[in-house]
Fold:
Amino acid sequence: MRIEFKSLRFEAEQKNIYLTSRQSALSKGYPFVEVQICGENKDTHLGAKMAYSSEGKRLRYVSHKQTENTLEIVQSSKLIEVKTFFTAYGDTNAVRVYTEVKNITDKEIVLEEVSAFVLSGLGKKGIDSAKDLYFTRFTQSHHGECQPRRFSFEELGLFRANTESQKRIACANIGSWSTKEELPQGIIEDKETGEFIMFQIESNSSWYYEIADNKEQYYLYLGGANLPFGGWSKPLQPNETYHTPNVALAFGDSLNEVVGKMTKYRRHIAGKCRVDEHLPTIFNEYMHLSWDSPTEDNTKKIAPIVAQTGVEYYVIDCGWHNEEDGDKVYPYIGQWKESKARFPHGVRATTDYIRSLGMKAGLWIEPEVIGIQCQEMLNYYDDDCFLKRNGKRLAVMNRHFLDFRAKKVIGYMTETIRRMVEDYGAEYIKFDYNQDCGVGTDYLSFCAGEGLEQCAKAYLKWVDDIRVKFPNVLFETCSSGGMRMDYQTLSNFSIVSTSDQTDYIKYPYIAGNILSGVLPEQAAVWSYPVGVGEIGKPLPYDAAWVKENISNERIVINMINSFLGRMHLASHLELLTEEQLEFVKEGVEYYKTLSVEKKKALPYFPNGFTRFGDENVVAGFETEQMIYLAVWGIKETTVKTGVQVSVEKVKITYPLASSVKISVENGMIVVKFEKAPNAVFLEIKKDR
Structure:
């Protein structure tokens, strides 16, 4: 029996059903589901690998159901029934997959490992393809998000020494920051065939992927947490079912094509918000301005200048609450009641003032934590309201973590959002999350990993309820920048902060890659034209200093940094001269013209991915007729863009008063700046 579904092929041999790669001539099939049950034999000499789970080989084909865009395959062993669900979409070859495991015995069983999906048969020559197969992993760090690194399988330790080895190419995220070290995605490239496979794991907590060898072939394992990598186990009572995280795979013949196919898929699952449909511009007071210490007077001084730029939302970040000084506030947060010290007339008076200028007002909150010295809330919450291990409340950087399984937490935080919206006048709320709780909580859970999974789902369930309750409020997700930039989270929010990077000249290295990980209509990027001074401290410079030291090129770079994604304008704009402010106004106006195209465009990397320290950065997005391209000359004045399509017209669309020279040399668009650093934004009409 053979089942064909989009780019996947399954074959049954004596009731064993295997996934068989269409590319690999050597592939003899491999189980596409791995399940390890506690106490059952894991028949392997392969060390930490997920291969040879107790149930992988025991599973037998039972049935399948197929429509044009869905496939359900049912398998069973003596202990479990497994259903794997596949969904395809009309405008992309990407396939979404998840697996359900049901206990069919009359006793409790404990799951230790469950794959969402296993793809086998990578490479035409099996493990002899090691030099031809390349893996791009997307490394992450605070201030250094979305940094792809490409290596051959051989460079990463996979090669023929025997028919199989103990070696894995793997990443295990453990904790509530789902993307602190790596995005849950990757690209496998077969240099011999020119084929690309991109995957993503949709988990807002722990997750795991593995590329390894087994019986002379390579496989890709995708799933959530497991026992060895995440401290996760899951007890199942008779007839109880466990649902894995969703994963997705896309296929293409080039880097741009495979990222484009994944982009189209992401648009099917991305969070939607009615008031965010036109991708409004946002000003946030935090970066290089108020930091943690906004005040009523400061907002009233800055907001009129911001309104002149055409920005639609004005967001007051951390510090509108609490009476403690801004640089000392975090151990005391949790009540989310307005600060009389910083807003003596009440926050509502300030948000009303923002509205009087023609903008909507926003506020910041960190809903999942309270400070360890927030005595009011420590007295209010019961012990079951906190994440705990071994009976002790977790504490990281002077914060405790709230458990959204607790009704008292849900009740208080729902009332908090109501107060922010109805009493304080917030029409935009930024949800931040600045610490990682680690492996999880064992309170009310079988183990810490299972507790983390439960709490992460409970939090997003609350988020969904809040979004329904307040449909006219735009909710942003942020986690110290991009530390929770996964597509389970991004299925519940329409906009995400991509980084807290404070140096404008480093941000192009993030903005130039970010569309590989996040939709352009979701990826918020800071733009801070007056991005100077000591972080967290008041700016010591005046307007005369800014006029002398903030160049037009610096302002242009900052504006272009935000063009490919969502604009988060910031910094002391009131110190700019009229001439300087015109560059900001022009940038805001031009950004708005990109919104319609941005929502249907696909990422475009003519020079491939960038990395910190590169001489220049080139990235953009494209439609059927147009290429929209940001070009940053970071260290060099001549930039070859790599655009080699036949073009009808190339024009500089920002800044309009640019003296940058554009030429076409050997079929490639070349940008020549008078000096570096500098940037320019191009519109390129394709020659059809």
The chain has a mean pLDDT of 96. The two ends are 45 Å apart (CA to CA). Residues 464 and 483 are 20 Å apart (CA to CA).
